[in-house]
Design a protein that fits this description.
With 298 residues, the chain is mainly beta. The chain folds into two domains: 119 residues, Cupredoxins -  blue copper proteins (Immunoglobulin-like), CATH 2.60.40; 140 residues, Immunoglobulin-like (Sandwich). 9% of the residues lie in helices and 43% in strands. It is built from four helices and 21 strands. A hairpin with a 6-residue loop joins strand 16 and strand 17. It starts with 8 loop residues before the first helix and ends with a strand. 40% of the residues are buried.
Length: 298
């Protein structure tokens, strides 16, 4: 499935840079007000290997923009709908009545606020009916709520990763229109990390360093299939299920995450080399959910 088209190399490298967050900045001791303004847009996107997909997006990308706040922050979300369809925005970190999440047809903006009460890594997605089609079309993303006291492991090399599915067969030009029957049958044609098939292949690995703490924020956006994330040659020193430090597991090789679940994985590698990662549901690997961490000596 890996394309040899070198013209895609530069934008893919830039995409990696966007999701790699170098050592986290110190967290403030005071709660803040955070406002996120997002647009709902219809857009044809690249999903790699020369294929494109007719998507509904948040901000023109799949997955949508990373939202990040600190436990205790007051968060305001504004969704401007630039499409002819009804869309919404449900953020799993928001403990408020679901009636806030869905906009009506012809409603130009949806807005609501909430307190980020619990730390974690949370999915957000469209809440308009039919929800399955809206998520499968690309309307999902990640929100991180950092613990008020910081992550127990301290500073780390941080990476964000969203696993998701695309449904549909490419035409002669590589264009894919979403297939509703396949969505209902939970039979994805492609399973991807950060929106593209085989995004982090041998030509575009994710760089890490020997001995450094790596903190991977991970969500399975689904919309249908479980994920069992694993890195060859790695035992995770800590896994925070749902990203909550109160739900810590230690010294585990992998955990299963259902649709809309997330986790924070922490690990170190002891020698230089390539460390393959993917979904232990092996069919998902063949459909695009695989990649490489490339560890270099410090």
């Amino acid at each position: 499935m890996v394309s040899n088209n070198r013209n895609r190399l530069i934008p893919r490298i830039l995409s990696v840079a966007l999701v790699l967050l170098s050592c986290a900045a110190p967290l403030s001791g005071h709660a803040a007000e955070k406002t996120f303004s997002i647009t709902a847009e219809s857009k044809t996107i690249s999903i790699g290997s020369g294929m494109t997909y007719a998507a509904w997006t948040y901000g023109g990308t799949v997955p949508g923009p990373l939202l990040r706040a600190r436990q205790g922050d007051q968060v305001t979300v504004k969704l401007a709908n630039h499409t002819a369809s009804a869309h919404g925005l449900e953020i799993y970190a928001a403990q408020i009545a679901p009636s806030h999440f869905t906009g009506q047809l012809g409603m130009p903006e949806l807005s609501y606020g909430f307190e980020a009460k619990l730390p974690g890594v949370f999915v957000y997605h469209c809440s308009a009916i039919p929800v399955l089609n809206h998520i499968a079309a690309g309307m999902y993303g990640m929100m991180i709520v950092d613990p008020s006291g910081g992550w127990p492991g301290g500073a780390a090399h941080e990476i964000t990763m969203v696993q998701s599915e695309f449904y549909g067969t490419p035409d002669a030009h590589g264009f894919i229109a979403g297939d509703s029957k396949k969505m209902l049958d939970a039979a994805p044609d492609f399973v991807v990390f950060n929106g593209m098939v085989n995004r982090y292949d041998l030509e575009n690995p994710i760089p890490i360093k020997v001995g450094e703490l790596v903190r991977l924020f991970f969500i399975n956006a689904g919309p249908n299939r479980f994920s069992v994330f694993h890195i060859s040659g790695v035992i995770f020193s800590t896994v925070y299920r749902n990203g909550n430090p109160a739900a810590a597991l230690h010294d585990v090789p992998s955990i299963a995450l259902g649709p809309d679940e997330g986790a924070v994985f922490e690990f170190r590698v002891g020698e230089a080399g390539d460390y393959g990662f993917g979904d232990e549901s092996d069919a998902h690997d063949y459909k695009g959910a695989q990649g490489i961490f490339r560890a270099a000596a410090k």
